[in-house]
Every structure is written in C-alpha cells, then in structure tokens.
Amino acid sequence: MSMNICVPDNKGVCKLLKMETYVDFFNWLDHDTLMRILICLEDPSDLVRVSSVSRSWREFVIVNGLCKQLCLRRFPCLHRVDHVIEPNCGMKNPSEDGCSKSVEWETLEREHRVYAFLARGCTSFALRECIADAISASSTDNYPEESIHNTLEPRDRVAWGASYWSSKGQSDSASCEMLTYKLVADICVINEISIRPFQAFFQRGSPIYSSKSVRFRMGHTKAPEDEFTGEPSDNCANDNFIWTYTSPEFAMAQENRLQKFKLPEPVLCIGGILQVELLGRVQKQEMDGLFYLCISHVQVLGRQLSPPFSVEILEPSGKFVLKAHSYTQPSLPENGSCLIPNAHLEERAGDLQQFMDLLQEGLVFEYGWHEDDELDEEMPL
C-alpha cells in the first residue's frame, strides 16, 4: 500500500511525495491460508528463498516441514524414513543432550536442510548411467559365455564374438526371466531404463530373442550384498530382496535396437537394487524348438545422490535412516558416464552452489537483511 505526504523543498514549495508502507502479509493471513499458498511451491529453491525473507517466514517454513512435505509428495517411499542425521556435518544429532524445546527445533532445522537439499539434488545432480554391476540372472544357458555381465557392454559384438546374456530354453512362451543389478549408490533417482534385445546374427534368419513386455522393480537386499556373486541362479531372485517399487508393464518390440522405457515419474530407489523382469517369449530356437530370451545391453539413466546422501536400512521394520554427509556440490561424473552436455552441467552446478549457500546461511540475500535485524515488520506489500 502507499500514501501521499506533503514535503516542502528548500524554497518552501510543498511537493507531494509517494511513500511506501511496509507490512508482513504473514501477519494478515491465517495458518491454513498460508499453507495453501506455500504448498503450491514445487521448487525447493523457492521454499528456501521464502525461509530467507525474515525470521517469522523461516520459522513458518521449518516448523511446518514444507521441504519435507515437498519430498514426500514427490517420493512416497520417504514415508519410510525413521529419522535423518548429519553424521559428518559438525551438527548435533537427535541423540545428543539438550532441553526438549531446543532439541525439537534442532530436529526441525535438520530436516529442513536435509529435505531441501535432497529435493534439489533429485532434479539438479547430473544425469548419468547408474548401473554399477550385475548381481544375478534367474537362469543362464551357457555360463560364463552368456553371462548377465555381458549386458553391461554396450556393443553386441566384441573382439571375441557376440556379447549377450541368454536364458535357458523353455517350452512355455509365457515364462519370464529376471536380471538383477546393483546401482552406483544406495540412493538414486531413476528416470528411464533402456534394453537392447539380442539378434543372433550367427543363426539362420538372424532371429531376435526379445520378450513380449518388460517391468522393473527397485528395492534393497535382505542379506549382505557380498553374498551375491553375479553367477546365474535357477532360484527365484526375489527371495533375496525387498521390493519397494514396481513399474507398469511396457511392451517390447522385437527389434535389434536400444529401446527406452521412461518411468511415469522419477523413482527414488532406496537400497540401490534394480531388477528387470522380462515377461513372455516370442522367439523359438530352430535347433531345439524352445523359447529363449537374449539381451545384449541394459542401461539405466538417473541421478546418483551419493556421496552427499546415504541410507541405512533398519530391519526388520523396513524403515531407514537418511544420512546427509555434506552440503557440498558433488563432483561431476567421470568422462563417458555423464549424459548431459558440459555447458548445462556447469550452469546447473552454479545454480546448485547458490542454492546451497542460501540453505546453509539461512539469511536473505536479495534484501540485505540480517539475523539480528527486526524482520517481522518489513515486507513490501
């Protein structure tokens, strides 16, 4: 709002001047109205900026856990977080002594920092190849020549010949197979998975051994990961894992190309395990009349959230501890693993650094206010 006042100049002539009146509209709106407004902010950077306007705004954002709510809306699996800690950030954690009110505020501030940075990292960290290793296949026809490890190689032909994984033959075309992989971190955001069926160029007619459709699962192990050697297993691989996400079913074309399957929404994988379910078979092998599945390459596109973040699974509850190890910008992926142009990476890195500075300081930069100022009365309407 504004008002006009009469101010004499040095000659005694009265001039009208327009004066601005500053108010904090947070004091004019009720809690529910403010929540309805701020819940519309889908960018964590906007919430961090809001928390940097004044002391009262910062308190409202933190006490109501708006950054946490944003993360829960995007990634429902975060409802399984038992608590968050900052083990390497030089900040107090929930178990440390202190008065109950102080501990409660420190917990809320910690959650604000962790969830704000997590939400930002899920959209700003570099897109990259996210498979670290192959764990197991539900069956393998000739091991190790046709091992699941061959699916890590982008080419279907290498110096020693064809490179692919092959299932055992089945008389039932509806039978499925499972390929299980370890991701680059125990917490990743996965956007899409690509699969290239294998074309047997050494057989008459060069048949393509694709599946009818494909589905994906993500989760974590029940047993220590060092028990999984990547050797083929005829047992159900699901016995070793707890799956927290299952994708819709995608149709697969019987074509020798890298086929991309984009997930409906980015998925936060807690535990770093991904399984490819190959559903149904379309191609018989001429020599034995059995149906086979053969895959030459599997690629997973996503964002690695470590080393800033890691998780600790709490069994048997299935809940987990979310750990924020640092609020520093993660290093860029090694050459070849990053899937977006360097120019875009540098731009995002700059934006992310500004976000982290704002998050850690908790101060307003645009208006030049400080923590010690009386902030609650200063906001242009």
TrEMBL record:
Residues 32-73 form the F-box domain. Pfam families: F-box-like. InterPro entries: At4g00755-like (IPR055336), F-box-like_dom_sf (IPR036047), F-box_dom (IPR001810). Gene3D superfamilies: 1.20.1280.50. SUPFAM superfamilies: F-box domain. This is F-box domain-containing protein. It comes from Manihot esculenta (Cassava). The lineage of its organism: Eukaryota, Viridiplantae, Streptophyta, Embryophyta, Tracheophyta.
